[in-house]
Amino acid sequence: MQLISSSSLLALAFAFIATRSPLACMAASPSPQNVTVDDTLGSPDGSVHVVYSPSDAWNTGQNCTSCAVKTVDKNETLNGTWHEATYDVQHQQQITATLVFNGTAVYAYGIVPHTDSNATSSIYLSFILDNAEVGAFVRTPAGNGTTEYNVPLYSKDGLSAGTHNLTVLVGNAAFDGSQSVALLDYFVYTHDNSSGSSSAVALAPDLPSIVSVYALLWAVPLVGLLLGA
Questions:
Q1: What value does the mean pLDDT of the chain take?
Q2: 120 or 71: which carries more pLDDT confidence?
Q3: How far is CA 132 from CA 55, 124, 155, 167, in A?
Q4: Is 112 within the bounds of a domain?
Q5: Residue 19 falls within a domain, yes or no?
Q6: Angstrom distance (rounded) from CA 172 to CA 142
Q7: Residue 228 lies in a domain
């Protein structure tokens, strides 16, 4: 039977310690991931939801019988849900949907109907990021009876890591049209898993494993004596 030398055992022990060290844990820190926030169900873990204001100005499209747009196929939407709101310049009120998230990028997706050419399905949305207006989505219906799904309404990346808020404002009195409809389906934000307390946990070494390896190092000289016998 071939015996392992004490020097080989020592090399194996040090190699194992290196893989369990804090530096090795830092190299394996998780990468950023995208989190999808459904208009109704929220994020998969239930910690993030869209806030609608005023609540009575918004309808859950899948349960609505009096909505302005009745051609949405729920099978084409995320989780079969969406939210609809209609802005009327004759009865102005501030209609918003707000997402508060912790991340470095954010994306909003919605539904664009082309049911008719009147203002009922015209879209004018303003986007406010961290209390500053950052863009708008404007669409006039083609009147061809089709409906677009998963339409990117707004996107922004390169944000500083931390908490941000994105608000969708429905309608604008200056917009050329008496009404504006909003059909929101879902949001996506990018969360940096390497920031915050998760990194501190990842850096903690496996203490029992380290202790067992040091015990092995104490045993190496004894093995050497046995091999030399």
A1: 78
A2: 71
A3: 23, 17, 15, 10
A4: yes
A5: no
A6: 20
A7: no
